[in-house]
Design goal:
mainly alpha, RNR-like, transmembrane helix, oxidoreductase, Ribonucleotide Reductase, subunit A, EC 1.17.4.1
Length: about 325
């Protein structure tokens, strides 16, 4: 059984498992299950109130972006990934991932309910702020292609659209743009601020690291099973998507931190974005492009480079996630 397909009566028998990496990631995702209200976010309220306007702006800006985009990821999964995958173990993981995205959305709702943030202003930001709206439109373009046009997954063009959607969401949105925001959110804890908010972000990062692993494994599996996708032209297009995403994120970060806060400014974040982009390029088998050092070495190792495999010679199967060996215990809040 190939991993791509649209047969309703196919993929109804879980065992024997065809793609062990998907099953292992599902098991790890279940082990990581958590709920936002397990964290006493109200304990951070005094920190938030004594922070500078610029610092509160950064937190509000991040929540304004994350909140709708967690739901946008679910649309991409529901309409652009789940219907075109046959393997039941992949369906199990995608179902858990969609629940996690909903849980993340509710986590940011929890932040909006706890901190004195203007909800209407936060909700409108993804439309009113051009750099944020531009990123969202970039993502929506790929959903439209998957939902408003007939996608024939048996054709080279259809399979290319499937991979483009995965790159847009798993690699760019979750693997670069989200991680850039995670770093900013967690930077407050580096200064002993918003510690419980930091714990909430830790749990979200843990989930997103699995989403990233699943997406990369799925892309590489599709490429391995479909040699017609392995062309220099398609490779160049995928790489350019990632480079364009970096430019959009730089513009967004200039709005996120126009004047900088203690220990952090847009230049610092944008260097981290370029570092992330190089890691994602490597994970897809490309060479690095920016060749910058990681300015935020204090960040968790969840974004370390995964096992590499050449994007257009995807014959190595060593990219399977070592999830069983690294299954994380449920984290403690605080």
């Amino acid at each position: 059984m190939a991993i791509l397909g649209t047969g309703v009566q196919e993929g109804l028998l879980l065992k024997p498992v065809t793609y062990p990496w998907a099953m292992e990631l599902y098991d790890q995702a279940v082990a990581n299950t958590w709920f936002p209200n397990e964290i006493q976010l109200g304990e951070d309220l005094s920190d938030f109130k004594r922070m500078t306007d610029e610092e509160r702006h950064a937190v509000t800006f991040l929540v304004s972006y994350f909140n709708p985009n967690e739901l946008l990821v679910n649309k991409a999964l529901a309409f652009g990934v789940y219907p075109y995958v046959n393997a039941p173990e992949a369906h199990l993981y995608l179902a858990k991932q969609m629940w996690e995205e909903a849980n993340h959305c509710m986590s940011f709702e929890y932040v909006l309910e706890t901190f004195p943030i203007d909800r209407n202003e936060a909700y409108n930001s993804h439309v009113d702020i051009p750099s944020m709206a531009r990123k969202e439109e970039f993502q929506v373009e790929y959903i439209r292609r998957m939902t408003e046009e007939t996608l024939d997954i048996k054709t080279t063009e259809g399979k290319q659209d499937f991979v483009r959607n995965l790159v847009a969401y798993n690699i760019i949105l979750e693997g670069i743009w989200f991680y850039s925001g995670f770093m900013v959110a967690l930077s407050f804890r580096q200064r002993n601020l918003l510690r419980n908010f930091g714990s909430l972000m830790d749990w979200i990062v843990r989930d997103e690291s699995l989403h990233l692993k699943f997406g990369i494994n799925l892309i590489l599996t599709v490429l391995e099973e479909n040699p017609d996708l392995q062309t220099p032209e398609f490779a160049a297009e995928i790489k350019q998507m990632i480079l364009d995403a970096v430019e959009m994120e730089e513009e967004y970060n200039n709005d996120l931190l126009p004047n900088g806060i203690l220990g952090l400014n847009a230049s610092y974040i944008n260097q981290y974005v370029k570092y992330l982009a190089d890691r994602r390029l490597e994970e897809l088998g490309f060479g690095t492009h920016y060749n910058v050092v990681n300015p935020a070495k204090w960040m968790a190792t969840a974004n370390d480079t995964l096992e590499l495999v050449n994007f257009f010679e995807a014959t190595n199967t060593s990219y399977e996630s070592n999830a069983k060996a690294t299954t994380a215990e449920r984290p403690a809040a605080g």
